[in-house]
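Open question from group meeting: does this chain pack into something compact, or does most of it stay loose? Before anyone orders reagents, we agreed to write out a predicted structure and look at it together. Recording both the input and the output here so the notebook holds the full record.
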Amino acid sequence: MSGDVDVAIIGGGLLGLATARAVLRAHPDASVTVLEKESRWGAHQSGHNSNVIHSGLYYAPGSLKARLARAGGEAMIRYCDEHGVPVKRTGKIVVATAEEQLPRMDALEARGRENGVTVQRLSRGEIAEREPHVAGVGALAVADTAMTDFGQVCRAFAAELTGLGADLRTNSPARSFTAAGDRTVVHTSTGEVRARIIVNCAGLHSDKIAEAAGHRPPVRIMPFRGEYAEIRPARRGLINNPVYPVPDPDLPFLGVHVTPMLDGTVHVGPNAVPALARQGYRWRDVDPRMLRELLLDPALRGLARRYWRYGLAEIGRSLVWPLFVREVRRMIPEINGEDLRRHGSGVRAQAVKPTGELVDDFVISHTPRAIHVLNAPSPAATSSLLIGSHIAAEAFDRLGLADLARDVRESPTGI
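Structure tokens returned:
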């Protein structure tokens, strides 16, 4: 199968599908193809996460994350309500388990308020009223948090896109790119796609796709595996709603948290372990080629130098079960190893600067014929509708459709 299209989107996760949706809702006559290398939508990051719709509490005021998270969360809740996807406003608490964490919690509270998040300070007694089994010297109650199933959101996006006339192709990895006049030819296992604009939403492979398309990415992708545990059914009553630790401000990870899911299970995690393959869901998943790149790439060597202590601690908690349990017990002292069982993992695509620093904000890089989404960490799932609109507006700019780009920017959610 081959064809000429206006926009070819590589990656069938939340961002790729949301971008296609935003393009077609604003421009129904556009031709859009979405290429997904797996057999289903949302097969990786979009389908392996905590399923939390975030509030915007954590993100630096003025950052793209902060601008998109608060409104993006509300847009996602409305979308789920209107499209039959399970969603529940739960709120959450962020707990300081030691006195030395209180200044970080103060800063987090101020940041949340600046971002327009509804935040309430809790004393020890108020923590006990909300979560009797949680230990903390102080906490923040965040009302604007919700739970959903992002795998179902992906499927809802795909069903909607079918009705909008999108060409949706699973089992269609983008293998190479060539130029042909004013188009870029994407060579796939299901034929060629000749696109005026390509949008790279390939997640864990986004830097490699950018390189294959002739763009030198300003960051590299390092995969981090997030491992989860599950609280056994008899002990699920230890937690009522999501409970998070106060995060380390020097790292783009939120720490091991406890999350009651919509199906009644209670998940604990994720940690953040350097993965040995881009789809390294287990320790035995090893990609020798990627390991060679790690040894040769100055950015990733710099990452190891900067964060080796943190990395060793996370590896220890991954390999030594009592260390993981001890981390959970900081918040829930009644938990013991018999109350928990391992429960799968996800792999996060984390961008790394040439200096070895972890990138915290979204990274979107451009060429005249391509838009490359090179870092889309949490809250990308939460904000996917708005990020999709943001990318669609940039695509319209490159297609010479300035009026459409302006309209999408002025009314970005499109739900």
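Observations to bring back to the group:
The chain has a mean pLDDT of 93.
The chain has three domains: 3-46+151-219+361-410, 92-143, 221-358.
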